[in-house]
Amino acid sequence: MDKNIPERVSCIVIGGGITGLSTAITWAKNNPSDEKPVLLLEKEPGLGGYVTSFKRKDYLFDTVQLIPDSFAVLKYFGIDIDLKQFEGYYARIFLTDTTTGKVKCIAIPSGVEAFRTFLLQNYPNDEKAINKYFIYAQKMFDELFHLKVEPTFFEILNILFKCPKIITQSSKTFRQFLKRFHFSEPEISEIFDVFAAFSGLPSERVAALLPVSAMTVSLQGSYRPYKGFIEFPHKMKVRLKELGGHILTNTTVEKILIENNRAIGVQCENGKRFYADYVVTTIDPKVGMQKLVGKELLQKQSPSYARKVDTAKMSASAFMINLGLDEEIDLEALGFNCGYNLLTTGKGIFNKLYKTYEKGDRFMSKDEFFIPVICPSLPLGKKNALTMFVYPASVGDWCTLRDNDYAAYTKKKTEIAQHFIGLVEQYMIPGLCKHIQVMDIATPATFVRYSGSPTGSKFDMAPYPTNFGKNRLKMRTPIKNLFQPKFSHGIWPCLQAGIQVVDMIMDRKIMGGNSRYG
Ligand SMILES: Cc1cc2nc3c(=O)[nH]c(=O)nc-3n(C[C@H](O)[C@H](O)[C@H](O)COP(=O)(O)OP(=O)(O)OC[C@H]3O[C@@H](n4cnc5c(N)ncnc54)[C@H](O)[C@@H]3O)c2cc1C
């Protein structure tokens, strides 16, 4: 172990994913490193958690595919990442009718105004509804800037006055929210459902505010780093070290030490203990609170918080199919130089998939599907590659199978991949299979391993209205000086969460208690 790592620090951060890195950098920026040092503990040899890039032969793949404009936060950290912005069209939806074999491609342009114009041109019967939606959604989005993470009594009054739309819609799902506009064209629903899916839940389940915000920010600008998403943890690590932060990898925290209901440090699996004034856990919130703190202690301290942790629903896991393709295929000519492509049969299929997932079953059909297909290589000028996701998926017996019978694990995941590749070949990219040079398949077991989350959740706690906004699991836990800022629906929210939690610890000195930076 590095002898320079002090046993006593001011703040311990558990987990070196983007939330942990953001927390540690914000701490280090706002506290002198000699008097109030920060220590980041990570179980893996490298940092980044879910955010990584990996090579298979000469092909470069990323787990993460797209982020919205994050420049304000990166500037605050003092980090510069070279990001490619998607221009032209932002996403394409391949709406498929499997009975006739017909596929309609709906190309969504980048930019909120371009998107509104596109909808008006294509669905003139819904002109009134479209205009009403955009005015309402923009106002709702703007209200976000008045929200506070822990509002005081007077701030609650201010929020009631300044955020009427967010408050009115807070208990509604996106589908319920959309009803107020009376869209008549079913295709508009298909398009809006895509933005709901970005949050990991169908329109029928997701809190309305999330797709409204996701739609506004993603259309304003979507990016990916030229050198792969690994740039995020790389540059964040360098910056944290520059600021005097300490990092210890290959170190699994097994317990949060608590004395007189106050967090005083952590114990690691190797028996080593570290002590701190504050502990911030950025791992799976159920594991952090139920295992590292302990169910009994939590229950004794706050039955309501313990219940909230217990009932918080996590988001689903996924399969990720990465394909390295030969140089014969012209992905540019096939229109893949855009942020996101979706092959779907529409008609509420994502909701149907979700219901099946909730029952613990897997839905694989040749007649109904929902398959995001992204090209990570074209925008960055790399060797031809495609990434497909199968979502939602549950962990089921994937971990057991991988650990006990690797050949059966490989066979099963390959069969699943072939099913989805077959559909993409049939309806989206004719002749795809003959171009495949490399195939890499991540299963829910892969995501369990990298995050330490037993559910391999892609997006942390799922943003149902009962899990979201004022109903989310609070960052300030009932254990004094213990915080959990997890509520990550992607890199941008994770970057925000790290700043928010340090702001909370430091009595609003950084962002005045606001719920978003920048
Ligand atoms: C396949 C996939 C695709 C995605 N696509 C996008 C996308 O396109 N855009 C986007 O914005 N977001 C995307 N996301 C979501 C995004 O990656 C996550 O929201 C974000 O990376 C979560 O960061 P985190 O730090 O909160 O958690 P994690 O990344 O899960 O980090 C937690 C860290 O804690 C460590 N840890 C766990 N237990 C312990 C312990 N006991 N002791 C020490 N360390 C521990 C883990 O090893 C890990 O490094 C995607 C996620 C997945 C899985």
Write the layout of secondary structure elements.
Blueprint: E1 8-14, H1 18-30, E2 38-41, E3 53-56, E4 59-62, E5 67-68, H2 71-77, E6 83-85, E7 89-97, E8 102-109, H3 112-122, H4 127-143, H5 153-162, H6 164-169, H7 174-179, H8 186-197, H9 209-220, E9 222-225, H10 231-242, E10 246-248, E11 253-259, E12 262-268, E13 273-281, H11 285-301, H12 303-311, E14 317-325, E15 340-344, H13 349-358, E16 370-374, E17 385-393, H14 398-404, H15 406-427, E18 436-442, H16 444-451, E19 482-483, H17 491-505
Parallel strand pairs: 1-2, 1-13, 2-10, 7-15, 13-19
Antiparallel strand pairs: 3-4, 5-9, 6-9, 7-8, 11-12, 12-13, 14-17, 14-18, 15-16, 16-17
Helix pairs in contact: 1-10, 1-17, 4-9, 8-9, 11-12, 14-15
The structure holds flavin-adenine dinucleotide.
The site of flavin-adenine dinucleotide has 36 residues, from α1, β14, α16 and α17.
Describe this structure in words.
- There is one protein chain.
- With 518 residues, this protein is of the alpha/beta class.
- The protein folds into 3 domains: 8-51 and 230-312 and 462-505, FAD/NAD(P)-binding domain; 52-110 and 316-458, Polyamine Oxidase, Chain A, domain 2, CATH 3.90.660; 112-220.
- Helix content is 37%, strand content 21%.
- It has 17 helices and 19 strands.
- The strands form 4 sheets. Strands 1, 2, 10, 11, 12, 13 and 19 form a 7-stranded mixed beta sheet that branches. The protein has a 7-stranded mixed beta sheet with strand order 8-7-15-16-17-14-18. A 3-stranded antiparallel beta sheet has the order 5-9-6.
- A hairpin with a 4-residue loop joins strand 7 and strand 8 (102-109).
- Helix 8 crosses helix 9.
- The longest helix has 22 residues, at 406-427.
- The radius of gyration is 23 Å and the shape is globular.
- The mean pLDDT is 95.
- It binds flavin-adenine dinucleotide.
